[in-house]
Amino acid sequence: MKKFLVICFAILTVFTALAKEKIVVNSYMSDPAPRKAFADLVKIFEEKYPDYEVVINTFAHEDFKTLLRTWLAAPKGTADVVTWFAGERMRYFAEMGLIAPLEEVFEGSRWENYFPTSFKSTCSYNDKIYFVPQSWYWWGVYYRKSVFEKFGIKEPKTWEEFLNVCETLKKNGISPIAIGTKFPWTAAGWFDILNLRINGLDYHINLTAGKVPYNDPKLLKVFEYWRQLIDKGYLLANHTSYEWQEGATFLFRGQAGMYYMGQFIKDVAPAEVKDDLDFFRFPVIDPSIPLYEETPIDGFMIPSNAPNKKGAVVFLKFIASKEAQEKFAKDLGRLAANVEVTPPDEHAKKGLEMVLASSGVAQFYDRDTNPEMAEVGMNAFIEFMQNPSKVTSILDKLEQERKRIYSK
Amino acid sequence: MKRDRLTPYLFVAAPLCMYSIWVIFPILQTIAVSFTKWDGMTKMKFVGLENFKRLVSDNYFGLSLLNNIKWMVGFVVLSIPVGLIFAMLMDQKFPGHKVYKSLIYLPMALSFVVIGQIWSWVLEPTGGVINTFFRFIGLEQFAKPWLSDPKIVTYSLIMAALWRQIPYAMILFLAGLKNVSKELVEAAIVDGATPAQRFWYVILPALKPAMVIAITVNIIDSLRAFDIVFVMTRGGPYYSSSVMANYMYVQAFHNYRMGYGASIAVVQFGITLGFIIMYLLNVLKREERE
Amino acid sequence: MKRFSKAFLFYVLSTLIVVIWMIPFIVAFFTSFKTMDEIFMLRNFWSPPRNWTIENFKIAWTEGRMQRYFLNTFLVTSISVLATLFLSSLSAFALSWYNFKLKTVILVIFVAGMLIPFQMLLIPVYRFSLATGLYDSLMGVILFHVAFQIGFCTFFLRNFMVTIPTSLFEAAKIDGANPFVIYSKIIMPLVTPAVAALSILEFTWIWNDYLWSLILLQSDSKKTVTIGLTALQGQWISSWNVIAAGALLAAIVPVTVFLIFQRYFIEGLTLGSVKG
Description:
Chain A has 408 residues and is an alpha/beta fold. Chain A is built from 18 helices and 14 strands. In chain A, β1, α2 (32-48) and β2 (52-58) form a beta-alpha-beta unit. In chain B, β1 (36-37) and β2 (45-46) form a beta hairpin.
């Protein structure tokens, strides 16, 4: 037995020595659709650059978030490229020097030849680029056209109309709003959009930067609006039991009416529902506040401790290219970051138009906020959703945390 | 003679060496880290007792500790008597008792990941087994969101854990029952003792050693609870089902407060240590008697 | 008559208990054979599948890469069990037959170590593995399991060895046999039942380990079954049928081993009186 194992081990070692130059990509794209799209993309890369072999390690989303830091902080790196989110969540690592600046990717060219100028700041830290965007998407209120038609519902434009829609759905035995908060970030989506609609973008940016106290009366207003939905029982029952995908199945089955979610909700929709899904812009609450939306950007970084930085740069150059961006966007119906790529389908076109017609965009609560604050913040949102009457004490507690976290 | 004195050390050397590298040094290291502020990336900073002071005022830590106590009570109050009842029942060696036993033991062969997954279906709020059952017999009010109501989520998790814990207690008691002297029981019957009297005055005293071990082991296990919580709720909703081990994991590996996380581990270790010592004394005492 | 009513009571109660006990299994079993449509539309765990399908097992096995994970887990588990049994039999031998200064201290260290909350080890072991290059290798996981289980196994084997009559050992010693010969030729054959019991216990524990594989491995190609199952959960979140199939696959080896070697498993737990 032992001898056998030794031989196996020896063979394995020889094989690894003879292999092509390896690029290790750790990815959080674990849902079947994006996982396949990314694997296809890598296949194209390997055909184009036969000297390289790309190993993709896929992790469940939530595990990835935890493990990333341990990889980055390791004395010896194990991944050459990692998937991640633009914004504060990326800068956090750049600040500590754990990810590498990416000048080489844009050597002989310019950022502007690839990506919109407006993306540059979210992808940089101290004027250096650390992040190669791959795709971006919008958040909107998703619903099934057939369900809306059946009850004669039109897309609501204002908060009152929105509440009316909820009421109609509820009367007909449908949960008006689907949500799954087993992992709390879905609640942060609601927090963001309500804050953007009620207090506007500048206020929201200051808040996520830690400059506004959480017990600010203006912020309390956000929770008052949120509370209307909770008190009237418009949210899916037992939502803390479900992950966001499980929450989505209620929408797909027609047991829930609407879901405020990113475009990636289409990734998990069954084929027969996909074309029935549509979205509308989150309704206006205060007409004096311009329209702002949430448009997170996803992409890649290179860890400072990457064993094969050269290969990583080659790979990211490929990722930034029109060809790669077009393919990925098309497979998933997202918007490509590359300026030369047009929206892949009607749905994406509608999304892009909505974003272009808005006065500004935010990333997402947990991408704009310091990670530690985001963790307590999002848990507090869930606590609020379950105990809306305790809102003041929850916000006071959150304010204490903010003071502690930002005093460092 | 001199060589003979060296012999035991030679035998112990390799295992002890490995054990030191992976178990003993890490324990010491964690204790050291608990006095620092460290994000696992930048430099460690010595902060003295600050982490421990913060623990005292940290509500979520308090909650986690309280949940551990619930686990402890749940384990002792339920797995001991139920395990004992099962053992008494299975000790009536009617034909087929082996098959029954095997089936009851089965959960012990499963990984917590599997147990957690299966139980989340049992407890699922819409179509889950328990809620469907209550609705079926017309007791709608007992159909609860088992894993998302902060007031009951910990009990739901304990229930899932007991599925594996009860058979374990049962095994310990079945072994203990072997030591109950048949003559004493027969004598009691002859003396006209009722079954209850027999149980209370003859069987239970004979089970005392098994009982002590079962209780200590259950307490230690309850203080170490982690996997079920991690797999089923990750401590949610908003920390309401968190236990110390889970909170430590969140702080160290999610919030990257390694120092703070280490201090939680140290407190947990301290509490467990008390019971470990109890266990050790028990084992050693038993040996002396033998 | 009394005997009869007693038997009746026994069978009624036992059957009731076992039926309740098996419900979670039955749920998983039914779910794993259901089609996606049924899962999607019905959300019901009670009923048997309307159309039985083994498609889910295929998906879990190939797309979920369970076959790869099985091989990894098998390697990790078998090597770990063999190595840890060998090493701990050495220390158990020393601790049961020799009197030496540090004897009690070493024994207590071994026993205490097996009961500690493993969180104490998490951070340092992770960093140690990174520093030594053991991170993300099966060897790293194996070495950890071996070291961590030594405490329990030593304690367990020692408890068994001390029950062997001293005269055997003394006689061999007087005959001038060297200690390693006594260990391998005289003592070890006598403790085979204990070793058997222990290996079954260790096999199921190491096979079912989740946390350490999660912390010490990263490559898809090196993951173990339990990690594969959580990855499956992350990927097929609302496809319960696929997850159920994965869970049953993950359970099949330890359950089979348990059923075949049940006697040893139970003996092991009773003798060890403690879990690792």
